[in-house]
Design goal:
elongated
Amino acid sequence: MSEIIDTAELGEKIVKVLKTIYDPEIPVDIYELGLIYDVFVNEDYDVKILMTLTTPNCPVAETLPMEVEEKV
């Protein structure tokens, strides 16, 4: 039972971190902007984040996912 709580708490902490990452073109974080579709944390604490970019030709297409990975 405590593992479930721990993974849920970890998911909440990850969302807090994601809210510190901003789209450089507008002053809105990527979580509130809707670029994060889901955050998955399994019982082994492996994390997967399903996300998108604002446009197909997004100027930060290469750097934004790397920033998410580094901060999480």
